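Subgroup meeting minutes
Present: P.N., E.W., G.H.
Scribe: E.W.

1. P.N. recapped why we're keeping a running log of single-chain structure predictions: easier to compare across weeks, and new members can see raw inputs and outputs side by side.
2. G.H. added today's entry (338 aa).
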Amino acid sequence: MKNKICVIFTGGTIGSYSNGGVVDLKPETSSLLIEKYRERFGSLIRFDELRPLNILSENMQPSDLEKMADCIRGVDTGEYDGIILTHGTDTLCFTANLFSQIFCDIKIPLVLVSALYPLDDERSRGVENFAGAITFIESVDYGGVFVSFENNSENCKIHLASRLVSATQIKGEYESILNVHYGEIRGWRFVYNEHECNPTPSQLRRPRKPCTAQKLCTDLVTIQAHSLLNFDYYRFNDVKPKAVMVQLYHSGTVCTEGKEANFKNFLAYCKDLGIEVVIATIDSRAKVYESAIGLSELCTSAYDISFEMATVKVLLALGSGKSIESELNKNHFFEKLR
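Output recorded in log:
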């Protein structure tokens, strides 16, 4: 152990403060996280701090993500036990899934931490999430990309970044797909979650091939299936995307009857325009509903990964000139559940 961790501050709620009824960025609150951690937990760990940007994550642009990634690439991993990246909660899920791909072969733990409330709010779990990341880094001997997050009245959980799904509505709590987290912090110990869906520590120790798709393209439209969804409103007369993603119902279905709500009519429209359509997510072991028969032959399917991960893979494929289907089938950092 080198007792040395690189902390990369990027803003977000964990780097903000409360000013009346408004949460806003405050540059000096970055080091406040480390100060509060030392006050509560002590520690002989040396923290080196980097600040490539200071932004509310909902305002994140592709160039900001690239700055963040370049900062991580510039860290000498041989000098540290791990890297902690602070991040806003609103887009934490996207960045976690993205970095799980482009840094899938990182040799030390890269752990994303955030907070639902600023550090000056007594409800904030930012320090706990930071402490959880440190405990995890001190406990393991393998690399990879993870998320440390404590929901209300729970232990701090450690998630594989490739399996983190979007936060719950209103409450803003985070879980992994299938509600199977990688492990949790109990006291001062990291406890691995021995579940059949989780990779074992020995699997994480094995070398992983780097992800060759490293660039993002945002020429993508995403549509979430819901009752009475009218696909006729999605017309691309002025600006045509390179791809469209449709988030199916949990059973892998979408409406395929009627006229305006008929997904097959929309598929025919996109085919005429040369737009690739991706459907996600589909359980490869589940029985196929009659309404979904034939869909996989009409468009590209994302099997056994979260919709969030499928989105990242499509954006990377488009930006890097790769086949969307090929990228969806790859398993860079245990994102595949089957």
